[in-house]
Amino acid sequence: MTMLSVVAVHRQAAAQPQPIPGLTTTNGALDAKAAPDECFIAVGVNIPFARPNPTTGACAFGVPKVNQSYLWAMTKTQKTIWFGTTANPQCIAQGALALDPTQLHGYQTPSSVCEFGSSAYAALGILPAAIADFRPPKMFAYDIATHVLRDVTPTVAPSATNPLGFDPVVAVTRGIRAAATIDNLGMLAGPRPLGGLNFFFYQADTGAYLGTATLTGYDSIRHFVNLDGQLYATVGQTFIPNVKEGGGAVLRWTGKQTPAPCTTSCLSWETVGTLDGIGANITVHNGRIFVGTWTTGRPDSVAGIWRSPLVPKKGLSAKHTELWTKVWSVTDYEPDRVIAATYAVGALASFDGALYWGTMHVPWNATAVWVGTYGVPEGEQATTDAAVNTFRTAALFRGRTFGRHGRRHIDLLYGDARLPMWRPATETEPGRWEKVDNNMPPGHRVPLYGLAGFGNAYNNYVWSMAVWNNRLWVGTMDWSHPAEQGAESIFEAQLKPLPIEVTLFFAAQTFGGDLFFFQDSRSPAVSENNAGVGNLTNYGIRNMLPTNNSLFLGTANPSNLLTSASGPRGGWELIELTPRVTKPLNALTEFSCRRLRVHDDDGDGIDEPTDDDDIGSGATTCVVRISKPAPVGGLQVGVLSLSPELPVAAPLNVTIPAGRRQARFRVEATEIADRSTALLIAGFNGGTRITTLEITAPPDHDGCDHR
Q: Are strands 687-696 and 596-597 parallel, antiparallel or unpaired?
């Protein structure tokens, strides 16, 4: 199917970028922001196609609402950032996960609304209830030099049935999820709600619209990568029982740019790789292409990392389709197979000789899948246990080698050494939750740098990565703000105040997606900002795009009711970072402890490895080391035990003297059983490191053989 329409270019006046405070090493500026595009009265009583006054921004009825939530994909030419959006994705995702769409009920929080079947568009039969909050996406071109933002979304002439002039292909595009440029061709692409991928083509130097075309056979596209002048894309197809098997592929563009309409000539692809999951993020590392996948929804589908064969100079072709290798699976980390099926691989990037990648976890999806597998828990405690123990936070990995026969070197940088696993009931034992070691190889189970989510349990998605200014930048999704808003609304609907313990819990949270950077592959990540990069309702850094002088960020912000001139505002943002601090920061390069040997304190006078009541105490020495000598006055390194069940005492702060790079300190254990392991974490200058403290009994001297 091909179709050509026109582009009504809405050229906006150059806006002065707004400075963003609170960044560690960069200068930040808000270059562009989603504008309100609808008027909202209340759930179920809204007027279709009602928009704010274009001059005043006010609504005749209700309040302004901003539907375009995510800057979902972007690419660049020499002078222009091209990007596309998606509207109300949080509502669409909730609708897609609903087992029974008829049970979806519209709701409103202080910052956002999802109407579902209460929407006027559902009542009129325009949209089904599950996706009634859908709105067509927008496409933009941003001039880097002049700061002019142009709306380049294709449109058609307005009519009685289409008063806003929605292009018919745009109107059936879920959002613009992938973007790329090759030679002088720009392409923006996104999935159709009922299958297929819509592509929109532009001439990069002039911005002229060249046409649109649809690629069938897939329902997902996420990212492109350019290697030696060849453009590759990751695509996928969701599993539908008795209809579609599901899976993914890597495609190479074989098209040709022609004058408008550039439809079939622009839409020409060759399959060069097949995957067992939906292709998601893609990058180049050591002469090969690496792809992270998402589960297809099949019961046996598990996300992972796929590696291509070495890419020849002329690029991959159809003969390479079956030569890809799955080099990592989420089951190499997650011990619970049911929960593993809900993981997805997030962003990945090549940096300083290593491949980095993270994971993604849709909030409460693992709980829903667990309930679907084992049934609804009986009782309040069992329900709470299921919710808590299926909860997962994003982990981050680094791989240096991916050879076969055990020749792999993969480190867990941020994650959990132990994870809850469900043990189903047997004939003799009831079902139970048990905390077990993760599935990483021995010596790699304890994270090198920190806990999952960079220490923030609400960081559920390592969403974006880019190498810029000799650093690896990492952006996350932090869903604490929607969680807080949802909790508030639930209690408000019950005419109850928010419990004090819930209020205190969220008071300690820092809302907004987090931005980190790695200076090299030997140092922990440093926080550039942990509060949405200037807007605490930016719950994610969805995209990153490096240029010679700047790093552009595209954010995700579902707060569609926050449109006031004061306070944080909802909708996507285009943010530009420029360097401010270019010298490497002083970083924590080492944290280690000697083995702690416990001496017998139980009064029997014997240190026995097999003595169950062998309780003792002991002490050992730990060391912290930094990359640069401490200045006059010294530097403080914080230390904390991550094993509260073990009585291990360490100083809260350790001072590294002036002119020195390291400090040693004493750690004590009292009234502790032998053969224990404690985890300690040290923090310095925005980065952390974790070490394992092995606690053992001294050699036995009682003359007995206790083997």
A: parallel
- Are 372 and 501 within one domain? yes
Q: How far apart are CA 110 and CA 120, in angstroms?
A: 21
Please count the other Cβ atoms lying within 10 Å of the Cβ belonging to residue 581. 11
Q: Are residues 482 and 548 in the same domain?
A: yes
- Which pLDDT band, with edges at 50, 70 and 90, does 509 fall under? confident
Terminal Cα distance for the chain, rounded:
75
Is the per-residue pLDDT at 493 higher than 90?
no
Query: Is residue 310 domain-resident?
Result: no
Q: How far apart are CA 555 and CA 573, in angstroms?
A: 5
DSSP code, position 683:
E
Q: Which two tokens stand for residue 495?
A: 């005419």
Coil, helix or strand at residue 381:
helix
Burial class of residue 1 (count of CB atoms within 10 Å of its CB; 0-12, 13-18, 19+): exposed
Determine the 3-state secondary structure of 20 from DSSP.
Answer: strand
Would residue 216 count as lying in a domain?
Answer: no
Same domain, 393 and 535: yes
Q: 377 and 464 share a domain?
A: yes
Q: Which pLDDT score is estimated for 47?
A: 93
Task: Taking residues 267-286, report their average pLDDT.
Answer: 97
Mean pLDDT value across the chain: 91
Asked whether residue 528 falls in the same domain as residue 613, the answer is: no
Of 123, 172, 128, 317, residue with least CA distance to 232: 317
Pick from 271, 274, 277, 273: which is nearest to 293 by CA? 277
Q: Please name which of 430, 280, 418 lies closest in space to residue 357, comparing C-alpha atoms.
A: 280
- Counting every residue written for the chain, the total comes to 707
Q: In three state form, how does the secondary structure of 247-313 look?
A: EEEEEEECCCCCCCCCCCCCCCEEEEEEECCEEEEEEEECCEEEEEEECCCCCCCCCEEEECCCCCC
Give the pLDDT confidence of 136-192 residue by residue, as tens digits. Answer: 999 999 999 999 999 999 999 988 888 888 999 999 999 999 999 999 999 999 999
Number of domains in the chain: 2
pTM of the predicted structure, to 2 decimals: 0.93
d(CA 164, CA 157): 8
One domain, residues 683 and 593: yes
Task: Tell me which DSSP letter residue 700 carries.
Answer: P
Amino acid at 390: T
Q: Which residues contact 628 (CB under 8 A, 6 or more apart)?
A: 586, 661
Domain that holds residue 366: 344-417+457-565
User: Which of 499, 533, 565 represents a domain boundary (last residue)?
Assistant: 565
Q: Considering the domain boundaries, does residue 467 fall inside one?
A: yes
Residues 506 and 561 in one domain: yes
Question: Concatenated DSSP letters for 180-224?
Answer: EEETTEEEEEEE-TTS-EEEEEEETTT--EEEEEEE-S-SEEEEE
Residue 239 is encoded by which pair of tokens? 């599993």
What are the structure tokens assigned to 545, written together?
A: 């795009």
Which has more pLDDT, 380 or 143?
143
Confidence of residue 613 (pLDDT cuts 50, 70, 90): low
Shared-domain flag, residues 542 and 621: no
